[in-house]
Amino acid sequence: GTALMGALLYRSLKCMKLLIKGGADVNRGSSLPMTPLVFTTGWGGYTNFVKFLLKSGADPNIPDAYGNLPIELAAKRDCMEEVEMLFPLTSPIPTIPNWSIDGIISHAKFESAKPLDGRQLEQTKATLKAHADHLFRLKDYKVASKAYGVAIDVAPSATLYANRSLCKLLLDDGEGALSDALRCRMLRPNWVKACYRQAAAHMLLKVSYYMSSLPLCFPTVQSI
Question: Is residue 54 included in any domain, yes or no?
């Protein structure tokens, strides 16, 4: 599950296909309470992934943590192509009176116009952060960084930026770590962890600059 979710976070269709052919469960959601199909229909740019998941037997009738089916998530993004793929495989939803492709999209637009429940937003953010934290504990810093990015897209916070900054530090990405540390400080200027992340990023950049300058200071035998 974690490997498959990593392929999705990196938008690697080739990797996802290999994992599924190798036996990955297309209906398992790793540490996240969402299936790969729920994830791909909830975010834009995954239409080819949705097509392959359905072809591989993904169940479109498994909802997300809030009871939304993949077809509803695709409809909220107004993605007609994905709704058309999901429609023949999805069981009718009683709360949608006009069970048709146009009816589903119209209903989704109506629901999307309602104010977002703050509690639901916080729960979504907490769920995504928990998944990213799990990947971090597995020392999969690249995928964890991507996962924190998904959580930031939903609801930015100083903690999420601080955690992604640490991932980038561990990946030797000084500029990325500094960028996230500065965003963290903008949200919580006096937070000790934010200051520490910024200092660590500056230190990494200085070390990187020093190491890159060594060949200029000490030419190799071939260059003499």
Answer: yes
Give the orientation angle of helix 13-21 with respect to helix 47-55, to 10 degrees.
10
The larger pLDDT score, comparing residue 9 to residue 121, is at: 9
**Mean pLDDT computed over 62-91:** 93
Supply the pLDDT for residue 128.
84
Q: Are 82 and 74 in contact (CB under 8 A)?
A: yes
Angle between helix axes 141-154 and 2-9 (nearest 10 degrees) is: 60
For residue 127, the model assigns a pLDDT of: 80
Rounded distance, CA 199 to CA 205, Å? 10
Could you tell me the pTM of the whole model? 0.70
Whether the Cβ atoms of residue 39 and residue 27 lie closer than 8 Å to each other: no
Could you tell me which of 87, 16, 3, 10 has the C-alpha nearest to residue 49? Answer: 16
CA 139 to chain centre: 17
**C-alpha of 99 from chain center:** 31
Number of folded domains in the chain? 2
Q: DSSP labels for 57-74? A: T--TT---TTS--HHHHH
1-20 confidence digits (pLDDT tens): 668 888 898 899 999 999 99
Taking Cα atoms as reference points, which of 40, 136, 111 lies closest to residue 79? Answer: 40
Tokens of 205: 């950049």
Residues 72 and 149 in one domain: no
Check residue 194 and give its pLDDT.
94
The CATH number of whichever domain residue 91 belongs to comes to 1.25.40.20
